[in-house]
Design brief:
By secondary structure, the chain is of the alpha+beta class. The protein folds into four domains: 29-90, Beta Barrel (OB fold (Dihydrolipoamide Acetyltransferase, E2P)); 106-186, OB fold (Dihydrolipoamide Acetyltransferase, E2P) (Beta Barrel); 199-269, OB fold (Dihydrolipoamide Acetyltransferase, E2P); 277-352, OB fold (Dihydrolipoamide Acetyltransferase, E2P), CATH 2.40.50. The chain has seven helices and 21 strands. It has helices at 9-18, 87-105, 150-158, 183-186, 188-197, 273-277, 324-327, and strands spanning 27-35, 39-43, 49-53, 68-75, 83-86, 109-111, 115-117, 120-125, 128-133, 165-173, 178-182, 203-212, 215-220, 223-228, 249-257, 261-265, 286-295, 298-304, 307-312, 333-342, 347-352. The strands form five sheets. The chain has a five-stranded mixed beta barrel with strand order 1-2-3-5-4. The protein is elongated, with a radius of gyration of 35 Å. It starts with 8 loop residues before the first helix and ends in a 7-residue tail after the last strand.
Length: 359
């Protein structure tokens, strides 16, 4: 009967010397052993078991038991005997190589934001964390709200979390760990082609993306357009939100094409009621109107929703020294006489009925 050779201490030391030892900073491969809420355990074979805190997995990484992974060694031995690993760092090292290649090629890539703040969207791409500033969002996604409404801006940005966005890399600095994305740059080529097909006078349909004090922002197939408050309606507009709501589809007319924005008009798609109504006004006609604005040189009077006229200080009686604020009260109705109708310049001059003569 053969006897088993005794294993000497020298043999054990020789075997141990052949087993590769972990070194902090190196990259190792292993298999996902278990997944828990706050940790992931990695089977490193003869190198033992690696421990990965959840924060070191990476926001964009989805793992399953049995997955083959590559990790970076942070600490060779913890108190529990495990080695401390980081999947995020290993992915980041490889990711920077990929980022720089994509930037150099000017390639369009797809990202999915994992969080947002008022300045923009937080992104992780190929293990590298980056940022998509609000200013680099497309017209479709830009949160056009009042500058003081910070909560609504954040709400709009939060709606983009988890959504796939096509972007280009605007700036990448590996040493400074800086990575900036731009959605505007990714769609620039397509926008140039669309701009070439548009001309002043065209009627276009768009989606309202923002309503602010000075007008309405409209997304026309990815191109940003603005309907200034003066182009919303033929009547005086005090609050644009009385006419349109965010998300509404509206038809507009292109009245100007700027470098990267359209100037649009809603009112020019309808007939100007002013032209019809002033036909009824001739010099000497007596009218009734509402005082809407009082200025040092007179007062503006609303004769109808579409027609506004001016009664100059010289037509108030009492000479040039009269104070319009002592003659008029805002929103009061008074009787006037039409002095002149200037259709070319859309101006109507009035005289106050019953004005006091200068003594």
């Amino acid at each position: 009967m053969a006897t088993k050779a005794a294993v000497t201490m020298d043999d054990l030391l020789a075997q141990e010397s052949t087993v590769k030892q972990l070194v902090a900073g190196e990259t190792v491969s292993g298999t996902v052993l278990s997944l828990k809420k706050h940790e992931v355990l990695i089977d490193l074979g003869p190198l033992g078991v690696g421990y990965v805190p959840r924060r070191e997995v990476g926001f964009s990484r989805q793992l399953n038991e049995g997955d083959e992974v590559t990790a970076s060694v942070v600490d060779t031995e913890l108190d529990n005997g495990y080695s401390l690993l980081s999947l995020r760092k290993a992915a980041k090292d490889r990711g920077w190589d990929e980022v720089l290649v994509k930037q150099e090629a000017g390639e369009t890539i797809t990202i999915s934001p994992y969080d947002a703040n008022r300045g923009g969207l937080l992104v992780e791409y190929e293990g590298v964390r980056g940022f998509l500033p609000v200013s680099q969002l497309s017209a479709e996604h830009y949160p056009r709200v009042g500058s003081s409404d910070k909560d609504e801006i954040l709400q709009r940005l939060n709606s983009l979390i988890g959504k796939d966005l096509s972007v280009r890399i605007l700036d990448a600095d590996r040493k400074a760990n800086k990575l900036i994305f731009s959605e505007k740059e990714a769609i620039k080529d397509g926008l140039a082609e669309r701009f070439e097909k548009l001309k002043i006078g065209d009627t276009v349909t768009g989606v309202v993306t923002g309503v602010v004090d000075f007008g309405v922002f409209v997304n026309v197939e990815g191109i940003e357009g603005l309907v200034h408050i003066s182009e919303i309606s033929w009547e005086r507009v005090n609050n644009p939100s009385d006419y349109v709501k965010v998300g509404s589809n509206i038809d507009t007319k292109i009245i100007s094409i700027d470098k990267d924005r359209l100037s649009l008009s809603m009112k020019q798609l309808t007939k100007d009621p002013w032209l019809d109504e002033v036909e009824k006004l001739t010099p000497g006609t007596e009218v009734e109107g509402t005082v809407t604005r009082i200025t040092p040189f007179g007062a503006f009077v609303q004769l109808s929703p579409a027609v506004e006229a001016l009664v100059h200080i010289s037509e108030l009686g009492g000479g040039e020294g009269v104070d319009p604020e002592k003659v008029f009260t805002l929103n009061e109705r008074k009787n006037f006489t039409v002095l002149e109708v200037d259709k070319d310049n859309r101006k109507i001059s009035l005289s106050l009925n019953g004005k006091k003569k200068k003594s």
